[in-house]
């Protein structure tokens, strides 16, 4: 059975690679391919949510923070590269409040530091927060509220630092990506391929964790934390690993989102985006990697398509979608077939119909 599951997983992985690397670039225009690259970044966040929430029961409503940390780390380097050595980024010159580069911007001029920071900085922040939260045995709704409050605080801080973070506008008009001009369609396709490859790598990493001994321990902590503690394991450390890994995945997604879209701003990392990340995973199926990925892509696509037609009503529809998914299909669309089979199996058999003639 395990061999069969492994072969099925590899077949699905290969099919996904063919769709992402061959079919999509061949069928989609440059504009549509750019939109797909954006959606794949959302799917990368959903992979981490599947690990932390779907397997570990950690309702992470603050993934926008880690997405933003990775995005700003990447955008800061790209803005410095666009400005050239010794020059200030354009928005600092525009506001005229800075005469020299802030000290905490300077390390991001180094591409190696910037690339490492896109993943390690979100993971470090998650580790500090996780140690504080999980050691105090904060869980359930309280954990979700704390993570959401963190997203709100981070977005407010960014808005207030207009001279160094761009304020409400964020870091915009990014022209290059490590020497490649982003206005060139060929380079945009290269960015898409990098994002697609990164998504497949994250799916492989998450699957390995889920099907490992650690994955079984994570499920055990989710279902019976006190029993796991009695067996000699520290549930705080188990949950911390899932939280930190999910943060690193969100940070990488934010970093790749920047060259795909050319902008990062507080509007993309606050409470609403954090909830949107969770909605995508919930609708597709938070316990299924494939379901979470496809759900995130579908919800992101629906937001783009429907918000153009119903700009005032899309947010309400999105909230209703989340409520319906949790109330009537907790396992998401990925569990639909299993739910139908279970209900059919538990449905009472109908009594045979006997005609009057047969009874006589």
Task: Explain what the structure shows.
By secondary structure, the protein is mainly alpha-helical. Helices cover 73% and strands 1% of the residues. The protein contains 16 helices and 2 strands. The protein has helices at 2-27, 30-55, 63-83, 90-95, 111-135, 141-160, 162-165, 185-210, 213-223, 225-230, 235-261, 271-284, 289-309, 314-328, 336-346, 356-359, and strands at 176-177, 180-181. Strand 1 and strand 2 form a beta hairpin. The protein starts with a helix and ends with a helix. Residues 356-360 have low confidence and may be disordered.
Q: Based on Cα principal axes, name the global outline.
A: globular
Give the strand order of the largest sheet, numbering strands 1, 2, ... along the chain: 1-2
Alpha-carbon Rg, integer: 23 Å
Strand residue percentage: under 5%
Number of DSSP helical runs: 16
Residue ranges: pLDDT <50 for 5 or more in a row? 356-360
Give the helix proportion (percent range).
over 70%
Assembly status = single chain
Helix- and strand-based class? mainly alpha
Return the average pLDDT rounded to an integer: 86
